[in-house]
UniProtKB/TrEMBL annotation:
Residues in OmpR/PhoB-type domain copies: 7-104
Superkingdom: Bacteria
Protein's recorded name: OmpR/PhoB-type domain-containing protein
Record-linked InterPro entries: OmpR/PhoB-type_DNA-bd (IPR001867), Sig_transdc_resp-reg_C-effctor (IPR016032), WH-like_DNA-bd_sf (IPR036388)
Regions recorded as binding DNA: 7-104
GO biological process, one term: phosphorelay signal transduction system
CDD domains from the UniProt entry: trans_reg_C
Gene Ontology MF terms in the entry: DNA binding
Keywords: DNA-binding
């Protein structure tokens, strides 16, 4: 997965996600996460509040590769475990017949927004 808009540090819940460094921290501690699950998290977090279709997620995480939906589901399960919610993770919602939505509020650095506290919070929509 290549850099682009929204590729800066993102913070949500107790996590800090740094895509360029391929780093995820929880309360300041490094979190073990597989490469595909990491790419999926980056894609979902940079589009927090949006329902992303399975096709868009597969194309974003496995570019130029033929992949079955079961691979995406497996990475969603892995990501839910990393986020600490297991199968009941409220921050990664399956929207029936449409795709997945990351619902946690995501904060971005002020350098892009000029916020007084150093972070700009974006409201994630409930699915």
């Amino acid at each position: 997965m290549k850099g682009g808009p929204g590729y800066e540090t993102l913070a949500f819940l107790e996590f800090e996600l740094v895509p360029a460094a391929r780093r995820l921290r929880r309360d300041g501690q490094a979190v073990a996460i597989g490469g595909r699950a990491f790419d999926l998290l980056v894609l979902l977090a940079t589009h927090a509040g949006e329902v992303l279709s399975k096709r868009a997620l597969i194309q974003g995480v496995w570019p130029n590769t033929v992949v079955e939906d079961v691979n995406l589901r497996a990475q969603v399960v892995n990501l839910r475990k990393v986020l600490g919610g297991g199968g009941d993770c409220p921050w990664l919602v399956n929207v029936a017949g449409q795709g997945y939505c990351f619902t946690a509020p995501v904060r971005r650095p002020l350098t892009l927004y000029g916020a007084d506290d150093g972070w700009q919070e974006e409201e994630a929509l409930s699915a």
